[in-house]
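Hello,

Following up on my earlier ticket. Below are the four sequence lines again, exactly as submitted.
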Amino acid sequence: MLDVAATARVSVATVSAFVNGTAPVSTELRGRIEHAIQSIGYKRNAIARSLKMGTTKTVGLVIADITNPFFTDVTSVIQDVLHRSGYAVMLCCTDEDPVLQDEQISLLVDRMVDGLIIAPAGDDHALERSLAKTDIPTVLIDRICNGIDADAVVLDNQRAVHDAINYLIGLGHRRIGYISGSPDTWTGRSRLAGYKAALEAAGIPLSDELIRFGNFRERDAYNAAMQLLVQPERPSALFSANNLMVIGVMRAIRDMGLRCPDDISVSSFDDFPWADVFQPNLTVIAQPVHAIGEQAAQLILERIAGRNEQPSRQIVLAGRLMIRASCRPC
Amino acid sequence: MLDVAATARVSVATVSAFVNGTAPVSTELRGRIEHAIQSIGYKRNAIARSLKMGTTKTVGLVIADITNPFFTDVTSVIQDVLHRSGYAVMLCCTDEDPVLQDEQISLLVDRMVDGLIIAPAGDDHALERSLAKTDIPTVLIDRICNGIDADAVVLDNQRAVHDAINYLIGLGHRRIGYISGSPDTWTGRSRLAGYKAALEAAGIPLSDELIRFGNFRERDAYNAAMQLLVQPERPSALFSANNLMVIGVMRAIRDMGLRCPDDISVSSFDDFPWADVFQPNLTVIAQPVHAIGEQAAQLILERIAGRNEQPSRQIVLAGRLMIRASCRPC
DNA sequence: CTGAAAGCGCTTACAG
DNA sequence: CTGAAAGCGCTTACAG
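Thanks for your patience. The regenerated structure is below:
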């Protein structure tokens, strides 16, 4: 910028005023500056600008797994709206590991991101500790954490699972196996609560034998499903608490020589873009990924702009049961 | 840092030396500094550091589509190895749009990323122009661009498609429809070349009627497949040049009331994590996503470190044909 | 409308 | 081993 100022024979203040449109500049100087910028190939140094302004125009996004379609869909729309507002996004993955999560958040905080959008991993306290050292505006997605006062956009998980299980019950199923996410997470707990509530409402006794923990991971879900499938009185239906796990469930079903939906019905949380064209057409709970991303991005933008000084609020969205062909009457 | 220096009653130079371990500090001062850091809750400002050091410890990754499993898999491993080396990654998506690509690259260059890993979108000249203004170390993945002198890690696309088409020919197929990526891209061209070479080698005459352009997009591929499927002499097999497009192909097949593989065989570029458990089990060309990400990350790290001053080189990896159940003898 | 100057928080020769 | 000081490239009161 000094070079530009020098060759344009103006002060740096004027160059800055011109470049940022922050103050009027006479047509003459404007021409000289424009010319100087062209010939030098000047580009404003955003780092220096950040240092002075105290803002980096970037927000950190931390998700569990970039390989999970749910997160990528949400990420995609978040990026979209954030970019439109001139923000870059720095993406970090935690692999559902609180330690990694802490590292990633540190990395983001160090780089002075203006805001944080987090899909929390691990138990609530982990995130609480990670966030304690900073006062960067934060919005949570997918999960809520006790002890963290931040905006959040989540699903009404309990209601959604309740509906799905209800559908299964309506089909005559009584022994419905449930592959749960980690009970350490809000998501894991609230989905499981939906399962239990649905059974209870239908007067079907709960049985711990029918609940296994897959921790939102394919591998664990495979083992969990296996345990359910080898039971003498095999469940007639299986519900998986997320998309990764249902792959494991399907794999277990195949390895047991069973077929879905002929031998066993399957339903799951989270939709797949290809669900309608591959067999079995999975009956799932679709999350409003677009709305989730949109809302989260909007919230963080508001917080960053300081337009929103109100106490944090939670936006609760509804899931939608997509009935396809993976469930049969019992 | 001034605060820390003040309360520890030392100079900022000493604090800096301690924090970065860049010079020995006496045990006494070390204790005082440590204490001051604790009580103040000091964190080094990475922005100021970047400004002074001319390095941001972050690399920009620009891909076409975060929703595409191929890119997310590669992204996942790139992030992994980069994080391990203390680098953050800033992710941008181009939607295969050269204009957006230019914006994203600008955004990254502005923020002074130390390196760039790019899966080029659009035609070669677009990227060439976007990169012209900068001399940031760059490595290309997935696609090579004419006129750009950068390290690259790509697939031997022609060979891979050749193999897949050969397999189809071996099954007795003669009318093999081909859903191509954009011919403006190296990837689109080299994969198509593989198709043509395979037919030629088998003495099967080429027919433009059997080639349609899906531009790597599901929607376009759907239309392209439709055009192929309504032909009086319908192809007995369809090959899709990437993963997104095969979804469109399957959708077209379904909408035409056809079944795969009973009525028509299907094969595609790119594997899916769930390919073995959903029907039809797609026969595909699997890319070595892990190796691609690993190599790309390694290359950019070397370039950034300046350890590699050699002329740019291209790493060419081999695809692998995964024969499953979506292709039948004709 | 324009310019000289201070300062954002760090690092790093250069003296001591 | 430690400190005073300059400078990374910008923005922004403050004068003129």
